[in-house]
Each structure stands twice: as structure tokens, then as C-alpha cells.
Design brief:
The chain is of the alpha+beta class. It folds into two domains: about 35 residues; about 150 residues, no CATH class. The protein is built from five helices and nine strands; from the N terminus they run H-H-E-H-E-E-H-E-E-H-E-E-E-E. A hairpin with a 3-residue loop joins strand 8 and strand 9. The longest helix is centred in the N-terminal third of the chain and has 39 residues. It starts with a helix and ends with a strand. About 30% of the residues have low confidence.
Length: about 240
């Protein structure tokens, strides 16, 4: 009886030891399988996060491209290019010195130059200085200055205008295509051009006129810096 009991205990211990070894191996195998699965197959959450990250990356790249494009200058538009204009050909210029220190005279000369500047005389057209400049008016800024009337010098609005007309006259004389049709000398010698080269004006009695005999527009440039009167003529 004791022998049977001992044999039973021996086989029972062997059975238990054999079972424990198998359970540990099975447990390790299960853990290894679980770990292997979790590293090789992403969960749904991980997949969603990965796709979101990719979408965000694509969006960032797209924004980056758009940003780069927005910083690039616009391509030149041929329709916005201005046509090349032919430069005007200055054919002659003439200047006279203002020898008096009258500020009123200098003011009158500048006003008259501004009226004359940019005038276009078309082919076959006759230019009239008096018609272009008009009567000197105080409302336009003209002041009283020396004016030669006959052989006398008086104070009148627009004193100094004759120096502008005289400067223009001398410029016109240098262009063969321009013909002077009216010109009058002063009753007294002036100090800004040689004798016989002046051109007096007086509305209603004296004018400076010339005709453009060329086939081009004539453009008149007139200016004054307070010390000189400048006239330039160009075919435009």
C-alpha cells in the first residue's frame, strides 16, 4: 500500500512539473506573438494618426508652394509695355540774358514762358505770339515793369514779355523751314540782343508771327531761371 502511494506521488510531481514548463513556454509564446503583432500591424488609431500626419504634411507642402508662388514677381505682361516713342529732335536753341534786377520783370518772363512752353505749330500753320500769350492781366500774376513805348520807358503790366518774343525770334531765324511773316523792332535799343535782332510786341499793333513750312509738327520749349530766357525748337 505504501509503495502504491509513493508511486502515485512520484507520477503526480512529474505531471505537475511537466505542466508548469509547458504553461511558461506557452505564456512566452503568447507574449512574443502579441509583441510581434503590435509592432508589425498598426492599430486603427495609429493608422488614423499616420494618415492625418501625411495630410498635414501635404497641406504644409502645398501652403509652402503657394507661399513661394505668392512671393514671386508677376510675369511681365506685354500688353502693359509702353510703346517706344521716337525722341524729339531739337533743331535749334537760343538764350538771352536778363540784365535787370527787377523781380517784377523776372516774374512776368516766367509766366509768359510757361504759357509758351509746349506749344505745337502744325505743318503749314502760322504762329502768332500775341494770340498765344494774350493780354497781360494782373489776375494771371503779371506785375508792372519797364516797357518801351516809342522811345520812352514806362511801367506797365507784362514788362519783359518782349525779351521772350525776341529770344523766340532769334531761334526761329536759325531754322530754314520756318519763315518769319511779321516782326517789329523796338523804338529804342534793347540790351539783351544786338541791334536789329529784337522783336517787339504790343497787342493790336505789333506781333511776332512765323509759318511752319515743314511737313512735321514744330514744338516750342520755353523756360527761365530768373537770369536767362531759354528757347528750344524741335520737330516732333
Amino acid at each position: 500500500m505504501k509503495k502504491r502511494y509513493l508511486i502515485f506521488l512520484l507520477f503526480f510531481n512529474i505531471f505537475i512539473l511537466s505542466g508548469c514548463g509547458n504553461n511558461e513556454n506557452n505564456s512566452n509564446e503568447i507574449n512574443y506573438t502579441a509583441n510581434k503583432t503590435s509592432t508589425s500591424v498598426p492599430s486603427e488609431n495609429n493608422t488614423a494618426q499616420s494618415l492625418t500626419a501625411e495630410n498635414n504634411t501635404d497641406s504644409t507642402n502645398e501652403n509652402s508652394i503657394n507661399s513661394d508662388n505668392s512671393n514671386k514677381p508677376d510675369e511681365p505682361n506685354d500688353s502693359n509695355k509702353s510703346e517706344d516713342k521716337q525722341p524729339e529732335s531739337i533743331i535749334t536753341e537760343f538764350s538771352t540774358q536778363i540784365k535787370t534786377k527787377s523781380s517784377n520783370r523776372a516774374t512776368n518772363i516766367k509766366i509768359t514762358c510757361s504759357k509758351l512752353n509746349g506749344t505745337i505749330v502744325k505743318p503749314g500753320e502760322e504762329f502768332s505770339f500775341c494770340k498765344k500769350i494774350g493780354i497781360s492781366k494782373e489776375s494771371e500774376g503779371y506785375k508792372k515793369a519797364d516797357v518801351i513805348v516809342g522811345k520812352k520807358v514806362i511801367q506797365a503790366l507784362g514788362g519783359g514779355n518782349c525779351q521772350v518774343s525776341t529770344t523766340l525770334y532769334n531761334a526761329v531765324l536759325q531754322v530754314p523751314e520756318l519763315t518769319v511773316t511779321e516782326r517789329h523792332p523796338h523804338g529804342k535799343k534793347v540790351n539783351y540782343v544786338p541791334e536789329g535782332k529784337d522783336a517787339a510786341i504790343a497787342h493790336g499793333s505789333k506781333d511776332l508771327k512765323f509759318k511752319n513750312n515743314s511737313d512735321k509738327n514744330l514744338k516750342i520749349y520755353a523756360s527761365s531761371d530768373g537770369a536767362h530766357v531759354y528757347i528750344k525748337l524741335a520737330f516732333a
